[in-house]
What we know:
The protein is of the alpha/beta class and 380 residues long. It folds into two domains: 14-109, STAS domain (Transcription Regulator spoIIAA, 2-Layer Sandwich); 143-379, no CATH class. It is built from 13 helices and four strands. It has helices at 38-49, 67-82, 94-100, 105-109, 121-155, 162-172, 177-199, 208-246, 249-255, 260-297, 303-313, 316-342, 348-379, and strands spanning 14-21, 24-33, 54-65, 86-91. The protein has a four-stranded mixed sheet, with helices on one face. Helix 5 (121-155) packs across helix 10 and helix 8 packs antiparallel against helix 13. It is elongated.
Amino acid sequence: MGDSVPRVAVDPGYQLAISEVPDGVSVAIRGRVAIANVQRLRNELTEITGRHKRMLLDLSEVTYFDSGGGALLLQLRQALAARGARLEVAGSTPDIEGLLQLFDDDALLRPRPAPPVRGNPIERLGATALDWRADAGEMVRFVGEMVIGLLQALRHPTQIRWADTWDYMARSGQDALPIVALISFLMGLITAFQAAVQLQQFGADIYVANLVGLSITRELGPLMTAIIAAGRSGAAFAAEIGTMKVSEEVDALAAMGLDRTRFLVTPKLIALVVMLPCLTLFADLVGILGGLFVANLGLDIPSQVYFRQMALYMTFDDIQVGLIKSVVFAILIALVGCLRGFQASGGAESVGRITTSAIVSGIFSIIVADAIFTVLFYEW
Length: 380
């Protein structure tokens, strides 16, 4: 066997002076308390504490104290509190006191909430159903509140905050024109391309104009515009009201006796109901031009023939259907966005969560409403 390597004692950088006190033990630390030696120091202090109900720490002769020392004190205090003991700092230095003030020990010592217990699928399904039921009830109450606010606005139009209404109209209408134009043009172009692939097999290229016109005005125009509005305006409404709710500005309005619907909801609703149909008409025009682009360059159909064919098979009712949908979509977007904003609670994390929920719920409501409209117009 070879020679064994001798072990060299490593200086931990600190010294401990231990003494007994009533109901506990006192430990005076001299030297350095740093991240490098804090784990060893913690183990020694835990062993020294033993069954004592009280530990006094004297840090007045500590020459170096960093964040590792602060973490040591918090962990030691938490471990002692778990078994009914307590930690007291008997002496310290101004530098150590300044560093310890940066730690929120009360928050760290607060007991952590137990993780949610995942039940069986039936229990989770029942809990989800109850959540949906509560959310539906809250939405019904908010709809009633919104209807009352609109009736009061119609009776007293001078009480509407028109300055905010114009601002919301510019933000939800004018600022959305570029993205609406881009999406609508691409939708018209894609629809024309897909239709041409099938219609060219039968020599019916001219009917691309019919398909583009009907699909854009009745379905794609209002639907895509509403989805864009849900992602822009609905999320903005939820984030704005949610931030006000978290900062207690909504509670301040209620304390002053002011109606939150008239101040926060009515201007947004009026702006979106007015601007979404205008955006839908703009989307219809740009989408038809996207189809014209394909008809001119890909199918050699002149513009006059394209528009004449479209005029032969399209009526104002097709455009009217899209406008009716857009009004309903606007109401749904404003309703969901404002409701989710009022549901915010807590801090910034809650605002982010309700903003995401506003977008998802708004798009889901739009799709459901569009499906209902499709069935109703088909029956009529």
